[in-house]
Amino acid sequence: MKHRYTPKGTCSRLFEIETDDNLIIQDIRIVGGCDGNLKGIAALLKGMSCQDAAERMEGIKCGFKKTSCPDQISIALREMIAKAEG
Question: How many whole angstroms separate alpha carbon 49 and alpha carbon 30?
Fold first, then answer.
């Protein structure tokens, strides 16, 4: 399954996430944001279930912002889970 998500309240501008049929993350591409940090996060997420990744990143804040790139990724992953459960 492929999913495109436009994050809100972050420096990143777009997430493109690909999972297998069991909602295991196969690839994630992040446009914008803190390049090195987000490449690291993307590398760590490969092979994780959407559920586990979303639980770990949900609620993380960036400085004084109410959200962060990891928090927004968790929202995108939860959208994918809801769509699959459909």
Answer: 18
CA distances from 27 to 3, 11, 13, 35, 46 (A): 11, 20, 17, 16, 6
Q: What are the E-state strand segments in the chain? A: 2-5, 12-19, 25-32
> What are 29-55's pLDDT values in tens digits?
999 999 999 999 999 999 999 999 999
Q: How many CA atoms lie within 13 A of 14 on its CB side?
A: 5
Task: Show the domain range for 35.
Answer: 2-85
Cα-only R_g, the chain: 12
CATH number at residue 79: 3.90.1010
